[in-house]
Amino acid sequence: MFRKILIANRGEIAVRIIRTCTEMGIATVSVYSSADEGALHVLESDESFFLGDAEPSRSYLNIDKIIDAAKQTGAQAIHPGYGFLAENPLLAERCLQEGIVFIGPPPNVIRDLGKKTIARSIMKEANVPVIPGMTEPSTDIAELALEAERIGYPVMVKAVAGGGGKGMREVADPAGFAESCLSARREAEKAFGDGSLYLEKRLSKPRHVEFQILADAHGNVIHLFERECSIQRRHQKIIEETPSPALTPELREKMGHAAITAAKAAGYINAGTVEFLLDESGEFYFLEVNTRIQVEHPVTELTTGLDLVRLQIEIAAGNPIGLKQEDIIPRGHAIECRIYAEDPENSFFPCPGRILLYQEPSGPGVRNDCGVYSGFTVPIEYDPILSKLIVFAPDREAARVRMLRALENYLVAGIKTTIPFLMDVMKSDAFRLGDIRTDFMDEHFKGWKAKNDAMMDLAMIAHVADGLVGSKSARSHGKIKKGWPTPWQSLGQWRF
Amino acid sequence: MKYPVVCGDKKATVAVEGWNPEGESLFSVEERPYRTTVKRISDDTILIRANGRILKAFIANERDEQFVCVKGRCYSFKDTSSASVRRRRSEQEDRGGDVTPPMPSVVVKILVSEGDKVEKGQGLIVVSAMKMETTLKAPYPAIVKKIKTAVNARVAPGDILVELQESEQRHE
What is this structure's pTM? Predict the structure, then answer.
C-alpha cells in the first residue's frame, strides 16, 4: 500500500479523501493556491504544498506544479478528486511517465470516454442502448442541420468534449438551429478548446439515473446500484438519492447489467459512474461515463456500507475489489443535498464571501462532508460548493423528514446558501411523491422566493431583542462589537 | 417602544411593551402579538420563547448588516441608524441603472470602449464569480463616458464599472 498520497484538489472532496487516507494509515499531502492558505483541506492534511496564484491555471489546473509537488514531497500516488484535473487524460498520462500512481482509470480510458462521440460508439458496439443521434463529431452547421432533420426535432446540441452543461443547447425547431449551434460551438471552443458538436434526440421528461461501478485490474467489475440525480439547476445536480423511486427490481437489474457491460467495453479500471437517461416509457439510454469519484458518492456509501475512496485506493494499488456482485446488498434510503454558496432567489448566482457563523447539523443518520468553517472566506475563483449534507434512514419518507430536520439545524451566516431552497424542496409534494425529472426545477420551483412566514416575525423579534438584552461581554460595558448599533443607540430618532 | 426594522427588502415595525429582561414582554410585529421572553446564551446566540415556542437565534454582524439565523433560514437586517441610512440612500440614488456587479466577482472581458454608443440591453462587461459568467448590460441607451475597471480586476456590488451618459432618446 502507498505510504503517502497527494490530493490534487481542494474543498470538501479533498477533506473527504484525507479522512480515508488517515484511516488507512496513509500520510496526506494537500496542495493549495494563494486563495486557500487557511482552507480546511490544508489544515486537515499532514503536509501541504503551495502551488501558486488563485487563478486555477496557475495552481489546481497546473499539471507541472502538481507533479513537482508529488515529487518534492515523495507522494507515491495522486488522487484527483472531482473537477479540476480529474478527467484530464494528460495528468493520468504524466503520472504514468513519472512513475506516480494516478488514482483513477488509465489515460486512454479517460480520453475515450471524455470524447462523447467515441464513448457513444463504444457503447453502441457493446449493445448498450444509446440516445438516438450522431456518433461522428462535426463543426459544419449545414451537415448538423441535415442530421437534425434525420433525427427529428426537438434535438440536443452537445459538445463532443462537453461536461457540466457547457456547449449544450436544446433546439425545438429548425428556426433556431443554426444560431444555437454557433453559440454552442463558441462556448465549447472556449471551455474545452474543441468546438466539435454532435446531436442527440431530446427525450421527453427524462430522469437522470446513474450507476456506480467498480472495476479492478484483475477483470472484476461490479456495480453498487443506482443514484437518482434528476434535480438539477444549470444542468448541474443539486439533490441526489438512492434508491431511485423510479426503478422496479427488474429495471434495476437490467440497468445494472448495462452499466457493467459499459464498463467492460471501455476497459474501465477503478471507480466510475455510468449515467443513463430514463424516459417516461421506462426505456433507458446511455448518457456518459464519469471517470472519477462523483460529488454524490456518499449516498451510495451510506446504503452499501462501503468506503468508495478506500476502494479507489485499493484498486489503484493493484489489489482486487474483494467483493462479488452478490455481496452488495443495499439497505435503507439516502439523500444528499448540496450546500452551495449561491443565492437561490436570484437564479442561483454564486455568492462568495466570508462565513461569519457556521454550525453543522448532527444526530442519527446525518453526515456532512464539508470544506469550510466559521471565519473562512469562500473564494470567488472556484466552484461554489461548501458542503454536502447526506442523510440515511430506513425508507425514503424517513430520509426526507430527516433531511428537513438536518437542514433546519444547519447554520451558515454571512453568505447566501441553497439551504432555505432545499428545505422547500424537501417539503414539496413533488419531491415527497418522488415525481422528479430533469425539468423538476422549471416545473416546480421557477423564480423561487423564500416565504415570509411566522419565522420572519421571530427573526425580527430576535433582531430587536438582541439589542435589548445587552451582551455577555463587550456589550455590557457599552462597547459594541464591530460597530453594530443596538436599537438603544439608534432609538432616539425613531421614537414614536 | 417601536422599532422600525428592514429585513431584506421588507420593512416592518416591531413594538415592545413592558420590556422586562428577566421575564415576559409583549412584542408585536405589524400588530401580530408575541408574548416573548429573551435570554442571551452567548454573544452570537439568544434564546427566545415566543407564544410558547422556543427558538434559538444565531446573530452575526458585519459592517452595516446583521444576520439573524433561525431554523435553517438566515435573515439580513440593515442598520437603520442615521449615518448608514444616509449612505445607503445616496448609493441608491447614484445607482439608478449604473453598471455594477451583482456579487463579488472578477472582470473577464470589457466589451465596449469609451465614447461608444450603446443600445439598451447591450453587453458592456463580463464578470465571473465561481466559474459562472454574467454579462452586465446597458440599462438604457447611452454613451460610454468612462470605463472604471480593467480585465482581472476584483469588483464588488456597488462598484461602478462603467459610467454611462444617457442618450437623449430615453426622454423622448
Answer: 0.89
